[in-house]
Amino acid sequence: MHLRKIAPIAGMAVLSVSLLAGCGGGSNSSDDNAASSGAAADCPLVDAEDPGNSEAPADVPTAENAPKLAQSSSYSVAFSQNASNNPWRLAETESMKSEAEKAGIDLTITDANNDQSKQIADIKGLIAQKPDALFIAPITEQLGNVVKDAAAAGIPVFLLDRDVDHSVAEPGTDYVTVIQSDFIQEGKRAAVQMAKATNGNATIIELEGTTGASPAIDRKKGFDDAIKDCPGMKIVVSQDADFTRAKGQSVTETLLQSHPDATAIYAHNDEMALGAIAAVKAIGKEPGKDIQVVSIDGEKDGLKAVQAGDMYATVECSPRFGTSAFQTMADYAAGKPVPTLIINSDQLFTKDNAAENVDKAY
Ligand code: GYE
Prior knowledge:
The protein is α/β, with parallel strands linked by helices. The chain has helices at 3-24, 28-37, 87-102, 116-128, 144-152, 183-198, 214-227, 245-258, 270-282, 300-308, 322-333, 354-358; strands at 76-81, 106-111, 133-136, 157-160, 177-180, 202-208, 233-240, 264-267, 292-297, 313-316, 341-343, 348-350. The chain contains twelve helices and twelve strands. The strands form two sheets. Strands 2-1-3-4-5-11 form a six-stranded parallel beta sheet, sandwiched between helices. α10 links the parallel β9 (292-297) and β10 (313-316). α3 (87-102) crosses α11 (322-333) and α8 (245-258) crosses α9.
């Protein structure tokens, strides 16, 4: 079953429990906030606790029909990375490299430079080399066909951090599994932080990740769904800024001109948020005061921005896939059941814990 069909149910359950806890908590100070702005009472997210990680998705089938992987003491493995233009990608690649080294695995890595046709060509080239297993961090969900090509060539594929279209490539058949964070839940968590930052009154610019990438689709969905409960929170414009700092800045510059009344920016990753913060400062407005910024990832510069008060919060999306990637591969080779969807656990970074986490960040 696809995460998008599962997560809203699991996520909603967690969220509603938190909301009850928030209401039952009887916090006078937040009631005062509500009274002063007249908004919080209308927006249950303002007093909600961080919804945290979603519950483990139920009914995930195990991979039964994907190409098998024979157990060996010396694997040759390939990894198609979609880009190396930001700290998140570099940290993911580094994590894959160092775990491969520890396990004595020969790892070939290609970098698609954020270009879908290059990634398809990269993967075709890797398939021709017949690696024992192929890890792919797909740039968008449209890479299903080339994933199928790998399976047809008898190579077990493991997707990392982004998914492909299930109507094209079947989980458990065309690929073994996808290891990722629950992006819908990340969007919900970001929405709760945004509600707190703005007391439930926000005119929001949304910076979307690369169009067609599963984190862009799901981070939008999770956030949009969550703020439906808050009539004072409105996304006035939502635009693709390709997960990059440069586009985060240029897109925000343009959008601040067409939406001078914006009071908040929700960015699908820290890089875009950091670009947005630069754009806000460039027009003489103060991030964290005139415009609240919330994002996702938890990279070092993101945590520094939280510490500086430029960013209200960032929801962690860990790039450190190496351990789970190679453990999952080993389990698969050993014939253990591998679920077709594996969800990472992530934390939340706010001004309360940014300082203690910044040194560990990438
Ligand atoms: O959040 C972003 C990166 O696919 C989960 O891609 C990943 C996202 C991550 O470029 O910063």
